[in-house]
Amino acid sequence: MKKFSMILALGLVVLGAGMAMADAPAAPAPCNRTKFETKMTEEACKKGGQEEAKKAWKAWVSEAKAKDPALACKACHANMAPKFDLTPDGLKKFKDLGGK
């Protein structure tokens, strides 16, 4: 009976450790860029990686649509995830709409 109690106690410890690890938040995915052409992206990437950068850009696009209702991601980006390469005039469009 003593052996059973020890095994049960050890099992509960392992189970508890596993559950605690499952609740731990995963580290945010880092941004793909290492050279930033916009202060907004650089700050967002430092704060919380790709997720924070996406939030910042979505918020900016919402504001910029007041100036250009036709604005869409593809207006400035040649492709989206994972690299988000810019079109030749993408950065200029961003700055023309007030981006920094």
What can you see in these coordinates?
About 55% of the residues lie in helices and about 0% in strands. It has about 100 residues and is mainly α.
Task: Write a concise synopsis of the structure shown.
The chain is mainly α and 100 residues long. It has helices spanning 2-23, 39-64, 90-96.
Give the number of domains: 1
Envelope shape = elongated
Structural class: mainly alpha
The run of helices and strands is HHH
- Which oligomeric state applies? single chain
Approximately what portion of the residues adopt beta-strand conformation? under 5%
> In angstroms, what separates the terminal alpha carbons?
70 Å
Largest sheet: none
Beta strand count: 0
Cα Rg: 23 Å
- Mean of the pLDDT scores? 83
Enumerate how many helices there are, as a single number: 3
Identify low-pLDDT runs: none
Percent helix: 55-70%
Write the layout of secondary structure elements.
Elements: H1 2-23, H2 39-64, H3 90-96
Defining traits:
single chain, mainly alpha, 3 helices
